[in-house]
Known about the structure:
The chain has helices at 2-10, 80-90, 99-113, 115-119, and strands at 21-27, 34-39, 45-50, 57-59, 68-70, 73-74, 125-127. It is an alpha+beta fold.
Amino acid sequence: MIEMQIKKLSNLNINWNSKINIIDFQTWMNGGSLTLLCEDENEEKFKIDFVQNVFFERDKNLKLPGRIYLNDTLIQQRSENEYDIIHNLENLDLNSLKKLEKKILRDKIMYMKSNQYLLDVGKVILYERK
């Protein structure tokens, strides 16, 4: 499964060295998920999901709580892909975002860089909906 995800990510042409723009900032009423629709300077569009980290019991067909997804592909914790995403978001020009959006994004980045982010993986309980 991880090999398939790595293959999916390698097919992306995102230029992490270019300026990344947030086209749309979407917050979800599910405990704190955030979706960023973005594009790089080459107009390569992509989606970053920060899944909520409040409710750890989850249907096995849904995204894992407390994790990052790039174009619906789970990003491995502390991987190069995760580093590229977080590093780029930390260095974004946030002037186009509202004050609350800036806070939400900063909070998500702080969580992803924390030890709690690594520990929370052990809290996840997956179930199958009947």
